[in-house]
Amino acid sequence: MNPLKDEDVLPLFAELDRKHYAGALTAAGYRVSLVQVAGLMEAVFACDEDVAGWCLTSHRLILIDKDGDHQGGVRATLLHEMAHAKVDLDRPLSRRESPHGGRFWDEIGHLIGAGEECLGVILETSRP
Ligand SMILES: [Zn+2]
Asked: What's the CATH architecture for 6-126?
């Protein structure tokens, strides 16, 4: 698979932010960066899952692994990370809340209801 390029991801982020959130993520300072080295996220964040994206809410930054295995396509990975950003913008997670808790899945459900069927695959594979 060819590595993702900025033009595969940055315009898509802008489009999805406009479509679903009226540009709120961009307005809040969120930006997207492609990670240059496969495995970096696992190394930096000590995450042993095979992550294809990461949302750093404290830095308003979404990282996308350019060589990642994007289930449902990069659109699904991007929407997954954008859902984390939206949940945080609405109200930051309390220390007791799991990043993949109820509020996250409600947001995913909202996006699927808005026509993002690509997210169905993460419901099947990731929802507890
Ligand atoms: Zn996540």
From this structure: 2-Layer Sandwich (3.30)
